Amino acid sequence: MSSDPIQVLVCDDQPLVRTGYVTIFSAQPDMEVVGEADNGHAAVEAAQRLLPDVVVMDIRMPLLDGIEATRRLAGPDAVAPPKVLVVTTFNVDAYVYDALRAGASGFLLKDAPPAELVGGVRTVARGEALLAPAVTRSLIGHYAERLRPSDTSRPAREELIRALTRRELDVLELIAAGLSNAEIAETLFIASETVKTYVSRILTKLGLRDRVQAVVLAYRVGLVSGR
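and the corresponding structure tokens:
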């Protein structure tokens, strides 16, 4: 594992919030803040110029919102995309789901304690998705209507079911329900390491980048209902 510090770009239109993030990250021995941006256009430009490992992205920003900025940086057409960690006031922002579809590696609430924010940056920097169970459940509860699949999703659902074993489907359903690996292990009476293996197999078989994409897919195709 590289000993180089995690390079972080902080993007938020509120100066006090940016200053707080910069102070928190700069105090970590394994992190370096390489830049700041106060709008979406500046975020995209700075990320393309500075090539950070992790972009901490607000959703509501002027000129270009965080969703479109995320899509430009980490969407399917992006070259060497950074990891994007969306930080949002969940009860206000109605577009968290869109941010995940745009390529975000995870999201946290703005009122998360500093230790959780720092841990989130480290998590996505390692290439893992940050999908806190409590936040996942909130996402499901608030956006069930948006997550409801269309009739055209049935073939995709059948293809997904054929691609996975019964146990892998069980694990995917529990991931989509917002359970952590430890909670899945307890529910299925298997070891946490076994859960990690199943998650890895699911991502590989479905061609998904991370746990976030697995949750989005599960709801899009109707594997789980969101209710």
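(Above: one complete record from the training split.) The chain has two domains: 6-131, 145-220.
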